[in-house]
Amino acid sequence: KPDPYEVYEKSRAIYESRQQMPPRTAYRADSSGPDYRELDVYLRRQESGFGFRILGGDEPGQPILIGAIITMGAADRDGRLRPGDELVYVDGILVTGKSHRYVIDLMHNAARNGHVSLTVRRKVLCIGGPCSENGRSPGSVSTHHSSPRSDFAGHPNSTQA
């Protein structure tokens, strides 16, 4: 059975190669299931780090997820990352299917550089009404750049970035 992430990446590459200006937000063409949106986020490191925890990657092929967003950290101030977002790229390096340790090493390198560029994948649910992302309705998005909190922090393979 083909790996769904490989199929997604290949189809995205083909789609973007046919566009004059490749979109940085992509939607899956299959409308029978949940759609996904990709989002690029650039963060500058603060004294406390990038301001989020990293979960997953415990077993081969397990996704790497954004865990808790640290209050007043770089990710919280930026306001775009949400708990449950799947990490796809770190500084242009594909992390899908990689180990937790591998991603943490990439984040440590980014911390030494003082900034990181992330691409995350988020489910967009459209069930008989306005679409919501990771269970939030469009009307619940705050203009104060706050992010929902999560108790993912207690996850055994949770590392603060």
State which percent range the strand residues make up: 25-35%
Rounded Rg:
16 Å
**Structural class, from helix and strand content?**
alpha+beta
Give the ordered list of helices and strands.
Answer: HEEEHEEHEEE
Unreliable segments (pLDDT under 50, ≥5 consecutive)?
A: 19-33, 135-155
Intertermini distance: 34 Å
Number of distinct helices: 3
Oligomer: single chain
Mean pLDDT: 74
The major β-sheet equals: 5 strands, antiparallel
Shape: globular
Q: Based on DSSP secondary structure assignment, what is the total number of beta strands?
A: 8
Residues in helix, %: 10-25%
Commentary on this structure:
It is a single chain. The chain has 161 residues and is of the alpha+beta class. The chain contains 3 helices and 8 strands. The protein has helices spanning 4-17, 74-78, 100-113; strands at 35-44, 52-56, 64-69, 86-90, 93-94, 115-125, 132-133, 159-160. The strands form 2 sheets. Strands 1, 4, 5, 6 and 7 form a 5-stranded antiparallel sheet that branches. A 3-stranded antiparallel sheet has the order 3-2-8. The longest helix has 14 residues, at 4-17. The model is unreliable at 19-33 and 135-155 (pLDDT under 50).
